[in-house]
Amino acid sequence: MENQFDIAIIGAGSGGYIAAIRAGQLGLKVACIEANPYADPNGDPRPGGTCLNVGCIPSKALLASSEEYEKIVHHVAAHGISVNGVSMDVEKMVERKAGIVTKMTKGIEFLFRKNKVTFIKAHARFSAKTDAGFRIEVRGKRFDDVINAKNVIIATGSKARHLPGIPVDNVTICDNAGALDFTEVPKRLGVIGAGVIGLELGSVWRRLGADVTVLEAMADFLPGCDAAVSKELFKILGNQGLKFELGAKIGEVTTGNNSVQVTYTDREGQQRAFQCDKLVVAIGRVPNTENLNLGAIGLKVNARGFIDVDAHCKTALPNVYAIGDVVRGPMLAHKAEDEGVMVAEIIAGQAGHVNYGAIPSIIYTSPEVAWVGKTEQELKMEGVSYKAGQFPFTANGRALGNGDVQGFVKVLADTKTDRVLGVHIVSTYASEMIGEAVMAMEFVASSEDIGRISHAHPTLYEAIREAALAVDNRALNM
Ligand SMILES: NC(=O)c1ccc[n+]([C@@H]2O[C@H](COP(=O)([O-])OP(=O)(O)OC[C@H]3O[C@@H](n4cnc5c(N)ncnc54)[C@H](O)[C@@H]3O)[C@@H](O)[C@H]2O)c1
After folding, report:
1. Which CATH number characterizes residue 230's domain?
2. Contact between 15 and 51 (Cβ < 8 Å)
3. Is 457 assigned a catalytic role?
4. Is residue 475 part of a domain?
5. How deeply is 417 buried, as exposed, middle or buried, from its count of CB atoms within 10 A (0-12, 13-18, 19+)?
6. Which atom in ligand 1 lies closest to the alpha carbon of residue 215?
7. Would residue 477 count as lying in a domain?
8. How far apart, in whole angstroms, are the C-alpha atoms of residue 52 and residue 102?
């Protein structure tokens, strides 16, 4: 194997594989090394990281299937359609999801070949810093070698955080990986953590008929979201049948007879217990920075296990970069991708850049929640003077036609300059609509700019314009 590279990228997840492709496009000689435990049928590591293998893509496949099912069972009757004998084949649904994952991971290998990226399916470990760069051992089923690189990008991602004393077997007690592979709908599903994963996976299995209880340590629901959004989503998910215990302190978790018993102290200090057939633990993620032998090149991790970097993902060591879930900022695939492109361009001598103030966030519940920029709470805390405009989908013709008027759009703009500071959407298609708001923020738009842009009619995204107009109390359809 060729073993002299301009860049060695450790990790072929969202950050690493995109960095590899961009660096390949820029004519650099790139090795991308991946030791993913989610192997292909030959037992070889697959590219794509958490997002493609056990995260964004498979969970969205299941969300889509469960949404189709729920529509047929609960919503098409309102359109005059009657359907009898609806049933759900969970194994087929999971098989479909697996097919999508395989297709996409194969697609990355094709893109690697197209961009002349050397893909090394092995575990990477630093062995030394040399005058010419870095020496890295790559060991796997088909590789036992040492490569040299002038630059390194650490893109090793994160893994699910588990609770001490609660062993995850991914059969009865699961993290994000096991919860995507149930072979039947659990009657009673317990979820620890009302964060993004807990709500998305809880929603999938609730729609298919599971009785879902979510235990959350914090007293507030989704405290990082704009308060109006958290309040609205809490109400909607509750009406859908998800049960929440906020402020719960988890006690003992015991398994037996294909069920799990969870004891906890509720927010009033009362001891409580409940039984479920499966338990999903979704309490956040920790960076994968162990087993890299970072000491061999003199790189340290911080107290929380993350690698400290500057705004351009440069570590304390020259020519060593870190991107994605191993560094500060939200653990989001698109943030990792943007950082991958930035770093590849910087190494190629260009001016790579990420605008951290305009990274969208999405929760794929039904309806979805999407936002970009600041929340009202943040603006208040920062002492920024702002105006807010809000528009409900009950007043949007397309939403009425769709028979789905849940949610609203809220635009926050600076009182003096009218610059858009944040946009928050609760709607079935919020994930797609947020693109307009990200574009507006990236180009430093004012709420008046959005109000003056022609918006096709009838569309859901007209609600963004109406909310922007509402900033100055001049929404047209309200
Ligand atoms: N749609 C998306 O963009 C998407 C989807 C899935 C995951 N992710 C990312 O993956 C990461 C992990 O997701 P997640 O849902 O595991 O984390 P999260 O940080 O979104 O939520 C974890 C939740 O668990 C709670 N919690 C922590 N310890 C607890 C305990 N002992 N008992 C009860 N509750 C406890 C926290 O208060 C929090 O509400 C996040 O950073 C998320 O952004 C993103």
Report:
1. 3.50.50.60
2. no
3. yes
4. no
5. exposed
6. 33
7. no
8. 9
